[in-house]
Amino acid sequence: MSGLTYFRMAALFVLGALGHWWWTTYFSFWGVAPQLLLVLTFVVAARRGPVPAMSFGFAWGLVLDVYALHLMGAASLSLTLAGWLVGNVRRQVDVSSIAPQTVLVFVGTWAYFLFSGLLGLLFMRHFGWPGWDVFLLSPFYNCLLAPVLGWLWDVTVES
Prior knowledge:
Shape: globular
Structural class: mainly alpha
Radius of gyration: 15 Å
Number of helices: 6
Largest sheet: none
Oligomer: single chain
């Protein structure tokens, strides 16, 4: 049986949330770790479209909001918007191939940080800046992670 069953969706959600926590806690380099849930949202959007990506992005965003506790709902809104955008871009661009996927993840990571910062500016009266090290290095980590997660998606979910 292929596709997203309820069990696979729940497992994907839990593994994504726990994987992000584990990676940022134990496997970060120079205090910088890839944005695993952002990249997973991109992968879901590239493979399934905007609606599943928005659903997973919203749920994973709530997890990130609980982890960070800075502006509740900012990560949720950002990941939902990212899922919608990438899901709609996939109609014009083959985002499952590596080159467009890498460009989209790279630019999408910067857009995610800037949008989250602007939400902080709007609601908390200061720009929620992650720092230069995270802003400059995370897109490269995310680009390295995206093909791996895309391959894992194809092997586990689409099999």
